């Protein structure tokens, strides 16, 4: 198959797109402004941990479907489809920083193309952005907007199993080359305008974030009422009109997308003097949840001054080593401000910045050697560790499960007190607690 696709940006979305398209049989060139990243990719080294990326990278470097270039000109030579997946982080005022996206399209505009290429924007952007970018493509190509809905941790799987393919274009013909790439998946395709496609992406993420904030408010209510959020939210989620996905309480939504995308849509609504209460409330509830988790730890042990808190999990979610806007790190900072020292472990995160005096350790059991244990990422590995192996290490015999990932019954059977989010405190460790208080 001729190589006719180029991807600009080899981050989470760019790499999943490249690998996914190669799996579908297409040949793709990759380009990034980080030359050291390109050199690693040329040698088969993935820039981050993500299921299936590295194996697929080796496979498709070997069969020639993937190639990486330090020069945009070389990467786009002979291409007629250019996918742009660069970052669009939040600015301080909540608006999206689109500078990387503009630079990428401006750089493309300086090149000479033999054919009339289609530029496909896959970065998440506020409504109206692609129409402005389209002006930069006038006279040499077409611009379409096709949002990506993948989740880190299952990025390649999600890319290959989308619920729908949304493509925004002002001319039906311009969208066709892109949609053809996915023909073999036989998924519903929604052809719409660029602004509609942009709003579909922002709206989808805002709704998922809203569900998480809703689950947290219900769980916090369960705590004061002595109810159990597992049953209550399962009961709500069984209603097919609602659905159980994203109805899990915990430490809130972190990571590089939800917070920035809700802030972005809130900012757009405010700019147009339209209602933004729901978006603002979603963010407020989320922000309060980290304080709530820090409070749970403090309530459990009294003052945190001079105590060591063992932390399991730093990545913003399981399956990734991504700590961008990780709420685990925010909670760690709060605990440190309250006088605690942190000993943290994560199966995938081996380098990160922790507060002064705190440290990253190599095993879960090293982190459990603390006054209290706090779980902040929902790694299934944590559930698999028999509580008997860490019970005697935790001096205050207290486990706070910020993700409701542990089996409470097994934890208390090991002689520990267990506290989850919206789960009643369960314990058979009272004598030990009293002993440690004496
Ligand atoms: N991460 C996710 O789960 C996810 C899911 C759906 C959509 N998105 C959206 O997709 C976009 C990309 O997200 P990501 O997580 O892949 O970002 P990322 O930070 O992992 O990757 C962005 C890459 O683009 C490169 N880059 C920046 N400017 C460039 C330029 N001018 N030319 C070439 N390369 C350039 C960076 O060096 C980096 O490698 C964002 O808009 C994000 O909101 C992300």
Radius of gyration: 24 Å
| Biggest pleated sheet | 7 strands, mixed
- Which cofactors or ions or other ligands sit in this model? nicotinamide-adenine-dinucleotide
* Arrangement of strands in the largest sheet: 11-10-9-12-13-14-15
Spatial gap, N to C terminus? 74 Å
Nearest-integer average pLDDT: 95
Category by helix and strand content: alpha/beta
Overall domain count: 2
Can you summarize this structure?
The protein has helices at 12-23, 35-42, 53-62, 72-76, 99-109, 129-137, 155-160, 172-180, 194-225, 229-237, 258-271, 277-301, 327-337, 364-368, 380-384, 387-391, 408-413, 430-437; strands at 3-8, 27-31, 66-69, 81-84, 118-121, 142-145, 165-168, 189-192, 308-312, 341-345, 359-360, 372-375, 398-401, 417-419, 426-427. It is α/β, with parallel strands linked by helices and 438 residues long. The chain has 2 domains: 3-192, Rossmann fold, CATH 3.40.50; 193-438, NAD(P)-binding Rossmann-like Domain (Rossmann fold).
What does this protein look like?
There is one protein chain. By secondary structure, this protein is α/β, with parallel strands linked by helices. The protein folds into two domains: 3-192, Rossmann fold (3-Layer(aba) Sandwich); 193-438, NAD(P)-binding Rossmann-like Domain (Rossmann fold). Helix content is 43%, strand content 14%. The protein contains 18 helices and 15 strands. It has helices at residues 12-23, 35-42, 53-62, 72-76, 99-109, 129-137, 155-160, 172-180, 194-225, 229-237, 258-271, 277-301, 327-337, 364-368, 380-384, 387-391, 408-413, 430-437, and strands spanning 3-8, 27-31, 66-69, 81-84, 118-121, 142-145, 165-168, 189-192, 308-312, 341-345, 359-360, 372-375, 398-401, 417-419, 426-427. Strands 11-10-9-12-13-14-15 form a seven-stranded mixed beta sheet. Helix 17 (408-413) links the parallel strand 13 and strand 14 (417-419). Helix 1 (12-23) crosses helix 3 and helix 9 runs parallel beside helix 12. The longest helix has 32 residues, at 194-225. The chain is globular, with a radius of gyration of 24 Å. The model is unreliable at 431-438 (pLDDT under 50). The protein binds nicotinamide-adenine-dinucleotide.
């Amino acid at each position: 198959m001729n190589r006719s696709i180029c991807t600009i940006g080899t981050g989470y979305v760019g790499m999943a797109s490249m690998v996914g398209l190669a799996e579908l049989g297409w040949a793709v060139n990759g380009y990034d402004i980080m030359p050291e990243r390109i050199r690693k990719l040329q040698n088969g080294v993935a820039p981050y941990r993500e299921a299936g990326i590295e194996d697929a990278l080796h496979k498709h470097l070997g069969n020639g479907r993937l190639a990486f270039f330090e020069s945009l000109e070389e990467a786009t030579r002979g291409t007629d489809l250019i996918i742009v997946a660069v970052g669009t982080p939040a600015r301080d005022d909540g608006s999206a920083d689109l500078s990387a996206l503009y630079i990428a399209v401006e750089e493309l505009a300086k090149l000479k193309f033999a054919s009339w290429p289609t530029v496909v924007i896959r970065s998440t952007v506020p409504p109206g952005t692609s129409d402005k970018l389209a002006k930069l493509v006038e006279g040499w190509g077409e611009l379409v907007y096709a949002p990506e809905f993948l989740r880190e941790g299952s990025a390649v799987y999600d890319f290959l199993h989308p619920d729908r393919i949304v493509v925004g274009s002002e001319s039906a013909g311009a969208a066709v080359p892109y949609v053809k790439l996915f023909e073999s998946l036989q998924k519903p395709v929604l052809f719409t305008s660029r602004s509609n496609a942009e709003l579909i992406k922002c709206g989808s993420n805002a709704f998922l974030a809203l569900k998480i904030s809703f689950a947290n408010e219900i769980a916090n209510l369960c705590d004061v009422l002595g109810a159990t959020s597992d049953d209550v939210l399962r009961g709500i989620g069984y209603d097919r009109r609602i659905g159980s996905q994203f109805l899990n309480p915990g430490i809130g939504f972190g990571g590089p997308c939800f917070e920035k995308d809700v802030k972005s849509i809130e900012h757009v609504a405010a700019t147009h003097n339209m209602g933004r209460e729901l978006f603002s409330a979603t963010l407020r509830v989320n922000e309060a949840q980290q304080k709530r988790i820090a409070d749970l730890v403090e309530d459990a042990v009294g003052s945190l001054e001079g105590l060591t808190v063992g932390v399991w999990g730093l990545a913003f979610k399981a399956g990734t080593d991504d700590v961008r806007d990780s709420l685990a790190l925010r909670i760690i900072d709060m605990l440190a401000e309250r006088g605690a020292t942190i000993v943290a472990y994560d199966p995938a995160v081996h380098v990160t910045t922790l507060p002064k005096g705190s440290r990253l350790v190599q095993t879960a059991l090293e982190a459990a050697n603390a006054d209290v244990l706090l779980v902040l990422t929902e790694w299934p590995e944590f559930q698999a560790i028999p509580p008997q192996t860490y019970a005697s290490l935790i001096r205050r015999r207290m486990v706070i499960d910020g993700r409701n990932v542990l089996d409470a019954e097994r934890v208390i059977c090991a002689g520990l007190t267990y506290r989850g989010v919206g789960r009643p405190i369960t314990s058979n460790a009272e004598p030990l607690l009293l002993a440690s208080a004496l």
